[in-house]
Amino acid sequence: MLQKNSIYSIEIEDMGHTGEGVGRIEGFTVFVEGGIPGDYLKIKLKTLKKNYGIGRIIQMLKPSEDRISPPCSLANTCGGCQIMHMDYGAQLAIKGKRVKEILERIGKIETTIHPTIGMENPYEYRNKAQFPVGILKGKAILGFYKKSSHDIVATDYCHIQAPINKEVIEVIKNYIETYKISVYDEKSKKGLIRHVVTKVGFATGEVMVVMITNGKELPLKNRLVEMLQKKVKGLKSVVQNINDKNTNVIFGKETLTIYGEDKIVDYIGDLKFHISAQSFFQVNPMQTKVLYEKALDYAGLTGEENVFDIYCGIGTISLFLAKKAKKVIGVEVVEAAIKDAKENARINDINNTEFYVGEAEVVIPELYEKGLKADVVVVDPPRKGCEEKVLETIVKMNPKRVVYVSCNPASLARDLAYLEGKGYKTVEVQPVDMFPHTAHVECVVGICRENT
Ligand code: SAH
């Protein structure tokens, strides 16, 4: 029987879903934050529950061969990159292994799982940064929240963000300090600047800076714009968003353009997208292209098909498919996203798409009742996966192929098991690393009707 607060040695054998190390002591599962497979550690058992324990590293007995010194000095304190202390090749391998294990264990799915597609340069890949702003020892800081806390870890350069953020951070700190601009304090609810959000078009170099303020008055905003213009190459848009609510949600309701456009432009492949302060856009545009090309490949379109893109967001996948399909119907619950999807279709001269707002589990059965047919269905649901009603209706529509894009292997496994029980076969799974140095893994899955 293990004892809480006792010291044990443990070999880390696996990685949990938030990047923590997993090992066993006397057959009992113990999670160890910061441990990676292959590490031998001395730990203190901080928590002991019925089915598992949580240990804290007190000594590294023998480091894993995959352990590296992370390039970022904040890797251990910042909540952003959970596995930066692991060699990148090993990160890709363990993500693939997790997908395989989860599909087998939860879904009883035996299929081909291709090696995870990683990035050639797995740094500076994010096109959107959200920096909370604070004050430390009288100086302005921008940074990220510490793991499970609202303490800010100050940063001047984040290794996974677009490099232009370095200039933005410098200018904002300078502006706050030079003009004694107040900074929002979560406890007293006083002070002006809450967050700075940046968006970068990787293909165009266009930059948007969003100042999120507790109140309407942004002092010397023209001066701020001049300072940004001087340092930030590609600056296309400076926007103020007002959030005077006591909330963890970053954006408020009102958005004002204080310089340039209210949007920037980016491309994925040859498709053009308008990105505004609050619109959703995939954060790793290079890997998004890889993922969508796989989805297009698995859809196997000839130009004759009616395609459904369920959970379509701003229509990125729909537009990718539209060029090769007869017609694409996109369904999404967020109204603003559907507005963007229509606008994106228009600016790309794509005329064979239709978009519907609503919950997929309501809209898809309605469209089926109206007699709409699907030859191919693509789904890209949120973490919890598809509602059973959606899967049930897909099966009724009897498409010859289903393409499943998933950010959560556990719900994917459950949904694949459902489809396999209804005459579909999981042909192949392609994990794609959309978020290097984090524990996330995205998969695109090719599924075929068996009696074709
Ligand atoms: N395919 C898009 C976005 C996928 S993210 C892309 O690649 O960019 C999942 C999307 O599902 C989100 O846009 C979310 O708003 C939407 N969503 C969540 N629950 C939904 C539901 N019940 N019905 C329809 N859409 C839903």
From TrEMBL:
<dbReference type="InterPro" id="IPR002792">
    <property type="entry name" value="TRAM_dom"/>
</dbReference>
<feature type="domain" description="TRAM">
    <location>
        <begin position="1"/>
        <end position="59"/>
    </location>
</feature>
<dbReference type="InterPro" id="IPR030390">
    <property type="entry name" value="MeTrfase_TrmA_AS"/>
</dbReference>
<feature type="active site" description="Nucleophile">
    <location>
        <position position="407"/>
    </location>
</feature>
<dbReference type="GO" id="GO:0070041">
    <property type="term" value="F:rRNA (uridine-C5-)-methyltransferase activity"/>
</dbReference>
<feature type="binding site">
    <location>
        <position position="282"/>
    </location>
    <ligand>
        <name>S-adenosyl-L-methionine</name>
    </ligand>
</feature>
<feature type="binding site">
    <location>
        <position position="332"/>
    </location>
    <ligand>
        <name>S-adenosyl-L-methionine</name>
    </ligand>
</feature>
<keyword id="KW-0949">S-adenosyl-L-methionine</keyword>
<dbReference type="Pfam" id="PF01938">
    <property type="entry name" value="TRAM"/>
</dbReference>
<feature type="active site">
    <location>
        <position position="407"/>
    </location>
</feature>
<dbReference type="InterPro" id="IPR030391">
    <property type="entry name" value="MeTrfase_TrmA_CS"/>
</dbReference>
<keyword id="KW-0489">Methyltransferase</keyword>
<dbReference type="InterPro" id="IPR010280">
    <property type="entry name" value="U5_MeTrfase_fam"/>
</dbReference>
<comment type="similarity">
    <text>Belongs to the class I-like SAM-binding methyltransferase superfamily. RNA M5U methyltransferase family.</text>
</comment>
<keyword id="KW-0808">Transferase</keyword>
<protein>
    <submittedName>
        <fullName>23S rRNA (Uracil-5-)-methyltransferase RumA</fullName>
        <ecNumber>2.1.1.189</ecNumber>
    </submittedName>
</protein>
<dbReference type="InterPro" id="IPR029063">
    <property type="entry name" value="SAM-dependent_MTases_sf"/>
</dbReference>
<feature type="binding site">
    <location>
        <position position="380"/>
    </location>
    <ligand>
        <name>S-adenosyl-L-methionine</name>
    </ligand>
</feature>
<dbReference type="GO" id="GO:0070475">
    <property type="term" value="P:rRNA base methylation"/>
</dbReference>
<dbReference type="InterPro" id="IPR012340">
    <property type="entry name" value="NA-bd_OB-fold"/>
</dbReference>
<dbReference type="Pfam" id="PF05958">
    <property type="entry name" value="tRNA_U5-meth_tr"/>
</dbReference>
<feature type="binding site">
    <location>
        <position position="311"/>
    </location>
    <ligand>
        <name>S-adenosyl-L-methionine</name>
    </ligand>
</feature>
